[in-house]
Queue: 2 jobs
Job 1
Amino acid sequence: MENQLSNFIQKFFENLGAKVNFANNVLEISGVLESFEKFYGKASPYRFVFQSSNFIDGTELVDKNSYIVKAISSYLENSGQTTLVKIDFKDEKPKDFLKNVKFANAELKDLSKIKKHNFFFRFTFHTSLQYLNEKEKIINNIFVHEGKVTNGDLSDYPVVEGNKSEVTIPDMKEPYFLAKEELKKLVDPEIQKIAIELEKKLEKENERINSHFSHATNEHQEKLDRSKNKLVGLMHENDSEKIERQEKLVNSIREKMSLESSEGDKTRELTIEKQRHALNVNNKLFNTTLIYYPLFTYNATIKNEFTKRIFEVSYDPLTEDLKEIICETCGLPTKEIHLCSTGHISCKNCHYYCEACNKEYCEKCVKTVCEHCNKSICFECAVRCFGCGKVMCKDHTRKDPLTGRIYCNDCLKTCGRCNNLKDPLRFKESKKTGTMVCEECFRSEMQKSVLDGVFEED
Ligand SMILES: [Zn+2]
Ligand SMILES: [Zn+2]
Ligand SMILES: [Zn+2]
Ligand SMILES: [Zn+2]
Ligand SMILES: [Zn+2]
Ligand SMILES: [Zn+2]
């Protein structure tokens, strides 16, 4: 019992974040939250012993009726606060955690720090089980990290008091729900165990009550029978006074029987026992600790001769995980980064070359196939012929210098006069020969005839 009590007190103060030390049968507690000290009415340190033989000067002997136990109990009843705590991980050199990442065709140029935090939650539940004359208290700490219940122990980390202005407090509904589910799993076996014990005890009590009532009924019956027989005997003696007395006795036994053997009494006693053997379970959320810690997050700039790209890298010092870098084509994580010439990040399997210009691209960016030579080409290399509408490499097309229109070699027309390949839509009929000539040849013909006219007039 002393052991259970000292464990309870020790755990309570540990959860409050106090310094707890148990040595030479003395439980010494210091660094207690001011809110509890005020509540208890006494400043720490406290020095508790649990057996009178261990009592020395300056200690306090504690049993289950002590004021400290009552103070803790009512403090727990009135609690339910949220504590903000920070794990003060020291910053790591970002290059260290990027050492396993390979940049295939680009260089890491810059890393600039971004402030980010990650969270987890600790829910402290107090479960009290009350039955018969027992009161049992169970304390459970449940940790929730990234949507999952995890095992945790804050004592392994450099914990300091949190600062509200440093973080945005996340929503706690979902983690609380998860923790409550977990609590059920944790306390259910104990509840089941006690419930079974209580049922057995109650059965025994019921047996006792039933046998008591049937025994009492038999006893009274025997007494009644005896008194009745005696009354029959007295009838022959003709002593009216004695008969009257005996009659009274018989009646009083009858009355007593009808009173005591009434089913109502028995039912009442059975009900009382049933109530006495009920198990009262009370779960209380005692404390929510919101724990945050820095995520080492950086904007990484990578660059090559064609393009540059900034993306976020982050390292979780708690799980020691580098946030995965995701290929923007296939969506899978990659440790080898290829920078597409338009700035996409892709993995080894998703990066391609343009077969026309040889620049590196991701798969998404070389979707075009030249209708002339069947090469996969980038958007920069692909052009559409104004004449036939086909898409092909620049190599198989020509831009008309006059109109700026692009035609494939098949769609251009040879001018009979200058022998050049020209925009087929701009041919005109020559006034001199009546044949179709290119626009340039037509213009120079017109200029010449104007000049000829000028000289004729002179
Ligand atoms: Zn990929
Ligand atoms: Zn290209
Ligand atoms: Zn791309
Ligand atoms: Zn081509
Ligand atoms: Zn064409
Ligand atoms: Zn021409």
Note: The CA atoms of residues 103 and 314 lie 16 Å apart.
Job 2
Amino acid sequence: MSEIIISLAHPKLEKVYLRPLEKSDASRCCRWINDAEIRQFISNQNLLSFSQEEKWIESANNGKEGINLAIITKEKNIHIGNLGICDIDWINRRGTTGALIGEKDYWGKGYGTEAKLLLLKHVFDSLGLEKICSTVLSTNPRSKAYLEKTGYQEEGCLRRHQLVNGIKADLFVMALFREDFYPIWKKYTGE
Ligand SMILES: CC(C)(COP(=O)(O)OP(=O)(O)OC[C@H]1O[C@@H](n2cnc3c(N)ncnc32)[C@H](O)[C@@H]1OP(=O)(O)O)[C@@H](O)C(=O)NCCC(=O)NCCS
């Protein structure tokens, strides 16, 4: 992937814009990823050191592994989380998205939905991908709802797949096809 993203935004999406991650974001990202309340929702449940986080941001910036972006509030310019796409398969034109809003005051207020819409528009329009996958734990209904709001549908369920707080949670496999995305983009942006 040779393209360098400066930022992604849309005037009708009033809550957030996306920009590339910077090394100076590392301590914030480290705080988020090591927070037990957040970690219970994500598939990589290992603790990460500051230097691991810095290295991850460096690789996120080189554009080879996928795209990883910071979610910034438009109102106060606050970095509230990250999202991205990885495992891009150029032959089959698909990839896998993931997101994390680390500032918990912003959960459930539509910030994740706007951020995901901006990323999806880019991956369908500019990267030419056709299918986007994601996984979500059964213990995370907010994340499942937000994926469904942006058009993802459940394709399957890996039962009793991941230990979460001592209980084996199911893992839903979700996917969104390009043609199902554009009506949702239109609903939010009018375009
Ligand atoms: C998952 C995440 C990115 C979603 O972003 P968000 O800004 O919180 O989500 P949104 O507000 O855009 O959408 C959430 C939807 O879920 C709904 N919701 C919230 N809590 C819910 C619950 N317990 N059950 C069902 N739906 C719920 C909200 O009402 C909202 O739908 P609505 O706008 O129709 O009312 C964010 O919450 C987050 O990062 N959480 C912690 C880490 C995480 O879970 N990462 C994802 C791993 S797959």
Note: The pocket of coenzyme A is lined by residues 38, 41-42, 81, 99-101, 107-113, 136, 140-143, 145-146, 149 (CB under 6 Å).
